[in-house]
Amino acid sequence: MRKVIMHAHQPKDKKPFKSGLTIGKFYPPHAGHSYLIDTALRNTEEVTVVVCHRDDQRIPGTLRAQWLREMHPDARVVVVDDIMKDGDSRAWAEHTKEFLGFIPDVVFTSEEYGERYARFLGARHVLVDISRNAVPISATRIRANPLAEWEFLGGGARAYFAKRICVLGAESTGTTTMAQALAEHYNTVWVPEFGRMYAEAKTRARVQPPWRTEDFIYIANEQNRMEDQLARASNKIVIADTDSFATSIWHERCMGFISPEVDSISSGRSYDLYFLTDVDIPFVQDGTRDGESIRAAMHDRFKEELEKRGKPHVLLSGSHEARLRRAVQECDRVLRDVRPL
Questions:
Q1: Of 24, 190, 255, 257, which has the highest C-beta tally within 10 A?
Q2: Cα separation of 295 and 281, whole Å?
Q3: Are 117 and 190 found together in one domain?
Q4: What are the residues facing 81 on neighbouring strands?
């Protein structure tokens, strides 16, 4: 069978193949994978991308498939269990026929095994950038240190690998100022406090009753959504001005009890570090805050729950400059702590 070598820059209106296939672990998806899939899409009317999943992989195949669908909405992405022995091209070809239900016209790969696999499958083979000249990256390198290969990651993978820092504290303790300063220092995104925007809107509208548990459920979910969306545009680190865990504490403050529904929204979410802003700066009343009389009590409540739940945290005290120096030192430490996937 003749090996076909093609490049990504083919005329858009010329598609020599009807059905095409790319297959791999995509662990994780990266720019090289996108180059491969784009080549298939430019040259094939219908492209199927097969994501091979094993239970011992930290990133589930379903999540990798979701990222690929976002990156390549014109491709059909499916997940299959990685049950065949690596390198057994004949067995993989037979397995492919079973789960696909058809034989594709062409297989696009960037690997040496591609020719054998396509031959056993009964399809043509297109070899794409096997030398990695077009996109000099591999999944192995990314798994070794995702932050070092940031430029090759798409939005979903960036949100997954980004280090997450949360700044929280009682009212008028400088959380927003600190979040913005850290984001500027690291040239990255910061996530606003949705609950504050929501509270200001309720105050202006004079909504009665002032607060309900449903409000906090909505705030917590929206805070999570905003953070996960902005994390896709992050530069290795995400700075959040509060989180859904803090929303649960504010529910307790406003309603008088911890809500299991609100509290559960933050379960399963983890942060590399929390910064708790101290109450050692002047209180500023902006017309929406409860008041200075409860500030110390709220600070103590945050500290108590951070310790009780085992969340890694650092107290930021003193002037803004002193707080920022300490915060940058801690964030730098977090960024150095990269474990292979």
A1: 190
A2: 11
A3: no
A4: 53
